[in-house]
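Please check this.
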Amino acid sequence: MHTLLLRPTFAGRLSPQAKSYKTIFACTQKPLSVSRVRFSTSPKVDAKNQVYASVRNLDQFHTYQLLSASSRTPLLTMWTASYCPTCRVVEPLIRELVESGVGEAEGGVGYCEVEYDAPDVMSAGLGMTYMINALPTLLSFDAQEAQVETKVTDARKMANRQFLEEWIRTEARRHGNRGGGGGNFLSNFFGKSK
């Protein structure tokens, strides 16, 4: 957001008391008050979930990571492949949840599928970089860092709507702060504070 400073100018306004040229001249010598106008080159957007196109190369992946990091929202990635039948069952459910607004109240998320078997993704070694050893895999990125402690590879959990809603909300609470998304390390022992 930018701030525009308007400089004082002299107004040639006629007031009801202006009866002569001297009165008009006196009115024009008063500077207007200085005001600040805030403007932005983009409209203010509430925290909404973003669904991106499928990732088929390294540049797309890094672009989505940067968009996510700059908006301080986690990027949820679903690692899938064309030969994965489970992926085709789970992906519509996750997409539906993100598009319906799950996680927006907590700050919003970005979502994309990473096509693991795309030639550019394979040659870049993204799967090896982020330890993707099963398909489908859900992996969250916060401030461009993979959150491997919350990675989900169990297809039964991914088919559970309630589990997915809670997972998305937990990831959305990160707000670019990295970490566990909703508590501190003591919450594991003493319960989460509300």
Q: What stands out?
A: The beta strands are 2-5, 36-39, 50-51, 75-80, 110-115, 137-142, 145-146. The CA atoms of residues 82 and 117 lie 7 Å apart.
